[in-house]
Amino acid sequence: MVKKVIDIFPPHKEEDIEDQEGQVAEADDMPSIAPYIETPAKPKITFIASPQKSAIKAKREWGLAPAGGFLVKLAVILAVFFVLMYAIDARYARAIVTIEPQTDQVVADKQIFVDTKLSAPDLVKQSIPGISATIDKDFSGDFKSTGKASTQAKAIGAIKITNNFTTAQRLIKGTRLQAPTDKFQPALGKDQAPWFRTINDVTIQPKSSVMVSVVADGPGIQYNIAPSAFSIPGLAGTPQYTYITAQSSEKFTGGTDSAVAQVTQDDLDNAKTSLTSIIQDQMKGELIKKLTGAQELIPETINVTLSDITPNVTAGTAAETFTYKTKVHSTAIMVNKSDLDNFAKDLILNNIKSGYGVDPTSLQVSQAFVKNDPVTGLTVLSLGAKENEYPKLDENVLAQSLAGRSVAEAQAILSDPKIEQPVSIELKPFWRQALSSWFGIPKDTDKIEIRSALK
Question: Is the peptide bond before 422 cis (omega within 30 degrees of 0)?
Fold first, then answer.
């Protein structure tokens, strides 16, 4: 707020003036008392100027209305902004052109040698080092027998024969003694007789008893009967039939009639052949475990030798399974993947077109066993290589052809069969990208960066 101070003196009448003059004249003859009279202070009047009036006055001094002043300020701000943007653009303008060349696959193959005596690849001899691997271990395998053998046996037991007749009774070897049919469990078949026969001749004196050993007439578990009374069919129709009796006190045992598994010679021979195959596969797995991530096994070089191969049974043995035991010595040859890759890269470089480069990320290497050369003792491999080739572009020449061009013109220049479409063109600062129809590629080639997806 502006303060203004104005001193105002009140007007005087003429009479007062004359009186004052007269008084002054008279006073001349009198001593002066002025030094002792205080002069009254002059009054000050302060005016406060209005802010609105001051602003209006200032605008009038510019010769502008209020709205006109705002537009001037806006114009000044925009001018400063565009000047700064121009300065930044001139300093930091840049174009990044990303190109992906068209690619073609190159395929090549060659035979190489694997030599376990080498310590480093030999390009002249087309040979790479071989790494020998060895495993020694004991091995056993279980196998099932396929033969069948019939097991038949007759039940045996003891029978007490009592002679209550008046004369002695002689029973010759093979005399039949018959048990009740309900004692046979399971029931007898149609061709099975329900009797037992004495094993030896025996004579039973009157009024005495004798223990007689008997055997079943046929094989089978049915003859393993519980204690039972027996009759002697051979005495039927005679007085002795009633007076001579027989009785067992213990269950008969040993009766069987079944088929069991049996080891045959074919089982032993087939198991030995199968064992070799099983060991071959297992040794391959064991050898693979020895590999590092940088090595590769040549499966065809695996050699397995079996010694002290022995089954735990002989042909004809009744058994469902049998076991073979053996000592195993296994060898194989491994190679370094890096050696294969380096040979493959060299093979590709000899087959690409002039003026072309290769994409290292597309390299594919394969190897196939050919033979073990009996003359040199070396392993021969067929090495296959595949890799993508692409035309090399002169980035300086390309930058010169794009300098100062619009984005549309640059895209037209880059419409080449050797280049994948569309091509990415990125402009910086950001307003160049947003206003690409106004801004184009910088004229300075140092501000143009050519990026290739394949280098």
Answer: yes
**What are the backbone angles phi and psi of residue 151, rounded to the nearest 5°?**
-110, 110
CA distance 452 to 409: 20
Q: Which residue has the higher pLDDT, 225 or 428?
A: 225
Amino acid letter, 151: T
From the centroid of its chain, how far is CA 306? Answer: 36
Better pLDDT: 409 or 33: 409
Burial of 330 (0-12, 13-18, 19+ CB in 10 A): buried
Q: Give residues with Cβ within 8 angstroms of 264, minimum separation 6.
A: 145, 146, 147, 315, 316
Percent of the chain past pLDDT 70, that is, above it, reads 85
For 197-218, the pLDDT digits (tens) are 999 999 999 999 999 999 999 9
Task: Please report the pLDDT score of residue 21 as a whole number.
Answer: 43
State the Cα–Cα distance between residues 62 and 310, nearest whole angstrom. Answer: 121
User: Is there a cis peptide before residue 43, judged by omega within 30 degrees of 0?
Assistant: no
Residue 275 burial (10 A CB sphere; 0-12, 13-18, 19+)? buried
Q: Could you give the dihedral angle defined by the CA atoms of residues 170, 176, 177 and 183, in that order, rounded to the nearest 10 degrees? A: 170
Give the whole-angstrom CA distance, residue 425 versus residue 171: 122
Assigned CATH topology for domain 151-256: Elongation Factor Tu (Ef-tu); domain 3 (2.40.30)
Amino acid at position 187, single letter: A
Separation between Cα atoms, residue 5 and residue 257, nearest integer Å: 148
Average pLDDT of every residue of the chain: 84
Identify whether the C-beta of residue 344 lies closer than 8 Å to the C-beta of residue 383: yes
Asked if residue 174 lies in contact with residue 197, where contact means CB atoms within 8 angstroms, the answer is yes
pLDDT over 80 at 370, yes or no: yes
**Domain spans of the chain?**
3-62, 88-102+393-452, 104-130+337-391, 131-146+262-332, 151-256
